[in-house]
Amino acid sequence: MVLYTIAMPWLRSLCLAQKSEKKKMFGEVSHDVEVDVAASQAWKLYGSLELSKIIEEGLSHMVQKIELLEGDGGVGTINQLTLIGGEGMPEQIIGKEKFTTINNEKYIKEVEALEGGLLDLGFNQYRVCFEIIEKGKDSCIIKSKVEYDANEEATSLASTVPSLQLEAIAGVAKDYLLKTKNELGEFDS
Predict the structure, then answer these.
(1) Residues 6+ away with beta carbon under 8 Å from 33
(2) What Å distances lie between residue 22 and 17, 81, 122, CA to CA?
């Protein structure tokens, strides 16, 4: 009886803690696309603020505005994104992102959600990673990846948003790179 009396409050608090804990979903989604431009040329787009302009123009049905708040495109740069909401979401989704990694030698860029946006919709962490991999002299692979940690209420978003985002960004970037290559014959050095 003494053991039961001592263990009962502990067991009750354990059960209550488990009930109140929200289930979390950790995930990673990736998307690769091959582009017939040199890796260095693709990096000129991905490693700069130009990518934000291309996303804003090419995905105007999803992105209302991307505004530079702080920085010059390097590590520490902060953008504010105003996204157009969808069914079952707010009309506008406003959030901030921060460039956390820019590696000009390895052609790697990482961007993390800082506040608002998807974080307000149940994501605890949302990181987008881009890597440009040289395939040949005039060919590269754009590897995009989203890593996230989401609460249970964001499960339906987590199953679609990251993959749609990666495919959309890769599509407009590829179109821009090929169009620019074809219009100019080659990129400015």
Answers:
(1) 141, 142, 144, 170, 171, 174
(2) 10, 28, 11
Residue pair 24/124 in contact (Cβ under 8 Å)? The answer is yes
Q: In terms of pTM, does the model score above 0.85?
A: no
pLDDT score at 23: 66
Asked if residue 173 lies in contact with residue 142, where contact means CB atoms within 8 angstroms, the answer is yes
Which DSSP helix (H) or strand (E) runs through 142? strand 139-151
Pick the more confident residue, 114 or 160. 114
Nearest CA among 90, 87, 97 for reference residue 66: 97
Say which of 44, 96, 98, 109 is annotated catalytic. 109
Least confident of 9-23, 36-50, 68-82, 108-122: 9-23
Q: What percent of the chain has pLDDT over 70?
A: 84
State the burial class of residue 154 (Cβ atoms within 10 Å of its Cβ: 0-12, 13-18, 19+). buried
Give SS3 for 90: coil
19 is catalytic: no
Phi/psi of residue 30, each to 5°?
-130, 160
